[in-house]
Amino acid sequence: MALDPTDLYDVRSLLSDDERAVQDAVARFTDERVLPIIGDCFDQGRFPTDLIPEIAGLGLLGSSLPSDYGCAGLNAVSYGLICQELERGDSGIRSFVSVQSSLCMYPIFAYGSEEQRREWLPAMAAGEVIGCFGLTEPHGGSDPANMKTVARRDGDDWLITGAKMWITNGNLARIAIIWAQTDDGIQGFIVPTDSPGFAAQEIHRKMSLRASVTSALYLDAVRVPDRNRLPGVRGLKGPLGCLTQARYGITWGPIGAALACFTEATAYAKERILFGRPLAATQAVQLKLADMARRITQAQLLSLQLGRLKDAGRMQPTQVSLAKWNNVRMALDIAREARDVLGGAGITVEHCAIRHALNLESVITYEGTETVHQLVVGREVTGINAF
Q1: Cα(358)–Cα(333) distance, rounded to whole angstroms?
Q2: Which residues are catalytic?
Q3: Alpha-carbon span 337 to 320, nearest angstrom
Q4: pTM of the model
Q5: Backbone dihedral region of 87: left (phi > 0), alpha (psi from -120 to 50 degrees) or beta?
Q6: Residue 67, SS3?
């Protein structure tokens, strides 16, 4: 019996019926609603905001959070499959869902008060309130401990001053989860973006994640009541805990990008006739396609096991770093090879390879650069911190 080239190890058979149903529903959405428009969105540098109600209607925002808060209550593997199918469309679509779910809704759920959960999570799950996550700063990059944004008490309020950079959804957001230095360590705050002194400036002229909103945030003595402070965490473990959630989804997302590039390159190689035979009949191209299939299979198994560990409550941050490092590098290499197979046709947005390759240049950098994740694994292996 012939194998599925996109699933050589029949990983789909390891999924539950519910997990397969989630994957199929998001795959249909991507095929019918994302793929027909995403090339133009990338070309025009715009995020398709009209898709937000449909994304919310499918239960994709905060999908792993409990139904008590209007969320779908899905398991971690289902969330991973959501990320995979969305990124098969475009990294920008997956990034929108990742930020809303893992970086904005998750900290409110994990670190917020019950009042904050009831106030914000149902509206965020419905797509009525979009959030952004303010951690990275212009000078900070991979060193979040070097945070300059400060929050100082002023009676029953806080005054927050600082700047954040490379913020996905910044100009779409009604609230920002802002992390700031206080006299009691780093703390998180729910900051309405219409607060006096708050400004978001969209970043243009990007060559990557063009179908995504990326912003710089500026806070000039923004007054926030203490009831908007996340009371359940202090220190870097708060934002880093959010990043672990987001990085988990990112281990799955690039598998979708790689599958899109691999499928397109395979079909093209079978149809393109050069020197009297299809490209796919040459050893050089078959070696490329075989290597793509091998690396995708490895990534599929890696993320599935990671998801099972997460659902069992046994996932460790180092395991997430290993999968993020491996899977994003895999997808970026495949996107570049697929572009090569497509030849000159591969540089246009009529095909997906160059778009995914450019997007993955951001994905391999955000949520921890490849080097950072390599050093996390190195620290685990040697017991020595080389940062």
Answers
A1: 11
A2: 367
A3: 26
A4: 0.96
A5: alpha
A6: helix
Q: pLDDT value at position 178?
A: 98
Structure tokens at 339: 């572009």
- Nearest Cα residue to 103 out of 139, 129, 132, 64: 132
CA atoms within 13 A on the CB side of 363: 43
Beta bridge partners of 277: 274
What lies within 8 Å, CB to CB, of 12 at 6+ separation is: 20, 23
CATH domain 237-382 topology: Butyryl-CoA Dehydrogenase, subunit A; domain 3 (1.20.140)
Question: Closest Cα to residue 117, out of 72, 69, 175?
Answer: 69
Helix (H), strand (E), coil (C) string for 177-194: EEEEEECCEEEEEEEECC
Phi then psi for 176, rounded to 5 degrees? Answer: -125, 135
Burial of 313 (0-12, 13-18, 19+ CB in 10 A): exposed
| Number of C-beta neighbours around residue 137 at 10 A | 21
* Domain range annotation of the chain: 11-125, 131-228, 237-382
Share of the chain above pLDDT 90, in %: 97
- pLDDT tens-place string over residues 349-358: 999 999 999 9
Contact predicate 147/137, CB 8 Å: yes
Q: What is the mean pLDDT of residues 92-115?
A: 98
* Amino acid present at 325: W
Of 1.10.540.10, 1.10.10.10, 3.40.50.2300, 1.10.10.60, which CATH number belongs to 11-125?
A: 1.10.540.10
Q: In whole angstroms, how far apart are CA 154 and each of 24, 182, 196, 225, 226?
A: 51, 12, 16, 9, 10
Q: Is the pLDDT of residue 141 over 90?
A: no
The values of phi and psi at residue 194, to 5°, are -95, 10
Which two tokens mark 67?
């139904």
pLDDT for residue 33: 98
Tokens of 56: 């919310």
Token pair in block for residue 4: 């599925």
Average pLDDT over residues 150-160: 97
44, β-bridge pairs = none
CATH class given for the domain over 131-228: mainly beta
